[in-house]
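yo, NADH-quinone oxidoreductase subunit M is done. seq:
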Amino acid sequence: MVMLSALLWTPALGAILLVLVSGRNSRLIRIVANLFSLAALLLACLLLVQFDANDTALQFSEFYPLNPKLGSAYALGVDGLSMPMLVLATLLTCISLLASFSLSDSIKGYHISVLLLEFGMLGVFMAQDWALFYIFWEVTLIPLFFLIDRWGGKRRHAASLNFVLYTMGGSVFMLLSLLAISQYDLENQGSLMASMGQAAQNMPEVEQVLVLLGFLIGFGVKMPIFPLHGWLPLAHVEAPSPISILLSGILLKMGAYGLLRCVVMLPVAAKLIQPLLVFLALFGMIYGGLLAWRQRDLKAMVAYSSLSHMGVVLLGIASLNETGFTGAILQMTAHGLIAGALFLLVGLLYERTHTRNIQDYSSLVQVMPRFATLTTLTLLAAMGLPGSVGFIAELHTLIGGFQQWGGLMVFFSLSILISAAYAMRTIGLLFTGPVKPQMRDIADLKSLELMASGVLVGGIVLFGLLPAPLIELSTATVGKMLLVMGERRLP
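structure:
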């Protein structure tokens, strides 16, 4: 089967076709880019329909040896962990391109970069070979650097350089960990990921811990986790709003996805550094929430809230139990929808008012009722209100954490209270009070903008009310992960 290759190479083919289109023909460029991103979304949905959630094995696998001596191969496959990420990546890319219609500068280069970024992201979630995974991981850096540096805000040069230096620094640690594992005899089990997973478990405990710490730094930069988050606020604030949707909605999940794979690969080391993981998770949740609460810039607030919400993912991973893992995977999807919707709505508001200072707004509900409704629903989901997918994810993580640490989860509750504080403050400042004179003539969301944001908000509410399909998608895979780690026995 070549369905995964078809999905992977669709955005790359779109980028190649755009190279041949004249840069002056902006309408054709937009049409081609949107068609190829839509084609990728449809292919991902087709995979989802054919995906068997009860099968613990890799599905739609493709395997073509590249270097038989090393064991590396062009190996693709999906399971219950990567399947929701593929759909999320293709959906957010579509919405990002729809939100880019107001862009008027270097349209051709922008759309090529977005499609190449999608190509890299899809490769990360499909790769079943660490060498291939690392290549796709690095591929995402190049287009994202140009997207921030060329189309970003006033401090875009500093933001793009910061992002690349942080991420490449983390990549060095990831590469060192991969090389440390590869020093051991790799039994050729079909792919480098499988054979390296076996070799990693045969390493001495001290080396396992050092290798996992290397992975933690490498993936922790991307997630991001405290104190490796320095690049995040500047990159989010300075990136174009459509790119912030991708950056927060899916690129941060690449770090969580990689860390989850490595924790399963190195269960002994994961047990040993479990106290460190839970400390980083809880501290990051409270720290990110407090910083979000202090912000006046709407984009900076959403950026710091991402630090807090990704702490929930880390807490789920740190629990090393079924409920926690399920909560981490659910939170990856939930945060993708919530952060994507918030950055989209903030970007659309900025286009109309050219200010992101929350103090400049009031009573937008009278001027922009559609915008007010969607933004309020998204902010309520961000604080984990029951009936939203954010609540389902945080509840699973809370239960998983309580099973492992009990009373320590009071700090989790504190972070939820802080997120409620900044969410309610934002709703109050944006939508209550007298209408300011400069805000009286703002246009409400147009039909295309309403469709793009409505899809994300609809997903937040739908999966909040009917979470079973989303939970069942990864249940079998989570069971297999725990079996590999020795945390669950065969029935």
